[in-house]
Automatic annotation (TrEMBL):
GO terms for cellular component: cytosol. Its EC number is 2.4.2.1. One of its GO terms (biological process) is purine nucleoside catabolic process. It is an enzyme of class 2 (transferase). This is Purine nucleoside phosphorylase. Keywords: Glycosyltransferase, Transferase. One of its GO terms (molecular function) is purine-nucleoside phosphorylase activity. It comes from hydrothermal vent metagenome. Transmembrane segments: none annotated. Residues 31-265 form the Nucleoside phosphorylase domain.
Length: 281
């Protein structure tokens, strides 16, 4: 039996896990991830009951019930690095015995749904619409820190690299599929689907130019025009690919849904982005 060292699995003095400040009994099977800590209460206001609230740094959590189902809503902050913290710590809370510091024999699988905001890359996906990512395309490199080859969509990755002439000085883009069971439960006629791209930053990594030139000014145009077996890249944000990748590796189910508040193709921005998010919730 391998014991996980205190330097690797860090706990707070009260026994909660280090960053997200939760204990095992705080984790529901149904997890809602939001980026903005202020969005946690906007989700939780729909609950029938509130059981628990806590916050440490940008990681705010509210636990409650809706229609007799228990939900844990957590803010992740921005970016795949924060997703690495949140998803790993949620998994540790349900699949590692924190007292013995050993992996449990029986695996617990979580349902993880991201409710986020994003920019559309396609002119036919307007602001205020909703996109569900069938795949996550990661430019961030996070997943390459793990043994992940078995879950990657290599044929699609190779096609994307060829199409965009992607620089080999950057981390290799990786592509991971969502959980089809969760997708089927959340899809509707009002929801667009496609590939959700995940960048490691907001400005240069997403093709925005303020004062710094970027490595490939045409990359967004190449991304927009990529099609693989009829599937296009619909939107660009900063979390989905990491959620899909880590969830698959750890044995959890994940789907990412985004309210489109900007359209990069026609340079428009939602006049009421808060209502767009509320509609998604």
């Amino acid at each position: 039996m391998s014991i996980i060292a205190p330097s690797e699995l860090i706990l707070n003095p009260d026994g909660s896990i280090y960053h997200i400040n939760l204990k095992p009994h705080h984790v529901s099977q149904n997890i809602i991830l939001v980026g903005d800590q202020n969005r946690v209460s906007k989700v939780a206001k729909h609950f029938d009951t509130i059981e628990f609230e806590t916050q440490k740094r940008e990681f705010k959590t509210i636990i409650g019930t809706l229609n007799n189902k228990r939900f844990t809503v957590i803010s992740t902050g921005i970016g795949p690095d924060n997703i690495d913290i949140v998803v790993n710590e949620l998994d540790a809370l349900v699949n590692i015995d924190l007292k013995t510091r050993t992996i449990k024999k029986e695996h617990t699988s979580l349902n993880i749904v991201r409710i986020g905001t994003s920019g559309s890359l396609q002119i036919d996906i307007p602001v205020n619409s909703i996109v569900l990512g069938k795949y996550g395309l990661g430019f961030d490199g996070l997943l390459h820190a793990y043994d992940c080859e078995q879950i990657l969509e290599k044929e699609m990755e190779d096609a994307f690299i060829r199409h965009t002439q992607y620089s080999n000085r950057k981390s290799r883009p990786y592509i991971v599929k969502n959980n089809k069971e969760l997708e089927n439960r959340l899809i509707s006629e009002k929801v667009y689907t496609g590939i959700t791209a995940t960048a490691g930053g907001f400005y240069g990594p997403q093709g925005r130019i303020l004062r710094l030139p970027i490595q490939d000014p045409e990359l967004n145009t190449k991304i927009d025009s990529f099609v693989f077996k009829g599937i296009k890249i619909t939107n660009l944000e900063m979390e989905t690919s990491a959620i899909y990748g880590l969830s698959q590796l750890l044995g959890h189910k994940a789907v990412s849904m985004n309210a489109i508040i900007a359209n990069r193709a026609n340079l428009t921005f939602s006049e009421d982005p808060y209502q767009a998010v509320e509609n998604l919730i």
